[in-house]
Amino acid sequence: MNNCLNNLLALKSLCTAGTAPLFYLDDIEGVTQAKLAQLATERDGSGKALADFLIESSVRLMLADIDSIIPANYRINNEITSVCSSCTFTGFYSNATTAGTGITVKNTSNSRFSSLIIDSLKIKVNTTGTFTLRIADTNGLVKDIEQDFIAGETLNITGINFETKAKQVSVFFTNTTVELFTVSCTAGTGCGCGGAATVIPTDIIIAGYANGIETAVQSGILPCIKLKCSYDDIICDLVSSSPRLFGLSLLYLVASKIFDESASSQRVNRTASFDQEEKLSESERYYALYRERLMGNSKKSILGISQAVNQNLKNIKDKCVTCNNPVGIAWATG
Q: Do 57 and 255 meet the contact criterion of CB atoms below 8 Å apart?
């Protein structure tokens, strides 16, 4: 669920200290927590649960509508690049250092909306045993993988799915008794004879890691990496540019769903069974208001989300958003 949209609305009576949504469901005439409780079914259990369900449902519908109004010349990319190291293991090996030995992976895309994902690792050591491989980013996120290794055999570890917004990740052995084969990278990969990363500008750079710092020589580990774009982060950026417009639109959509829920309710009480036709009319009225705020209305000088999205996409200079240009190819060093 997109929290940037979800947090725009709340029931006033349920807000806690420090929370300040832009709009309250109580702002809708005739809507209170008590009346929502009278509409709640076994699916919901309470007025609060029904309110949460209707907000979340409306957010999903609104996100689909936002997808449909993004101009055809813009594309929100799923990822920036996806690469596997093209380097190879040499016939030489060295001991692991005290503070760990392996590789460093860097996201150099400069994208605000990207995250780095380590999908799989190809590993070759010269020591047989059960050892721990640690994946750690610069924000403190750590994943340990305990694995059995056989000297001289290449091991593929798949399905790792380590994801981080940090710009740098280290992958290394914690045990100093492990002997790791060194890595050789051909000229086309941007690495020198010793496996040193060059200054060629790329979206992903792979370098060595030893004694807790980045080094020129890579050891024992060849990764497959991707840079994924966060759709939610991009939507949050658009929402932050016009929060009240998005919030009011969402309020109208939730109001439409509340009156529709009331009109179709099978509960037997005054709130649920009173004046069904009027409730359907109110549902349709609020939905029309929502569509007006979504698409805009030039005759009434109403700016819509459609216009706001179009304008603000122009201001996003990021590899996760492209305009009229094919997605470029990014190469990894390593």
A: no
Asked if residues 312 and 238 have their Cβ atoms less than 8 Å apart, the reply is: yes
Q: Residue 227: which of 122, 83, 328 has the closest Cα?
A: 83
* Two tokens, residue 120: 């799989």
- pTM, two decimals, is 0.79
Residues 212 and 330: their CA atoms lie apart, in Å, by: 28
The strand pair at 142-149 and 129-137 is best described as antiparallel
Distance CA 42, CA 153 (A): 57
> Is the C-alpha dihedral spanning 289, 294, 298, 303 positive or negative?
positive
Tens digits of per-residue pLDDT, 161-185? Answer: 999 999 999 999 989 899 999 999 8
At 44-82, the pLDDT tens digits run 667 677 888 889 999 999 999 999 999 989 999 999 999
**332: phi then psi, degrees, rounded to nearest 5:** -100, 140
**How buried is 163 (Cβ within 10 angstroms: 0-12 exposed, 13-18 middle, 19+ buried)?**
middle
* Rg, the chain, Cα only: 27
Q: For tokens 């640690």, name the residue.
A: 134
pLDDT at 328 over 80: no
CA distances for 193 relative to 94, 232, 288, angstroms: 16, 41, 66
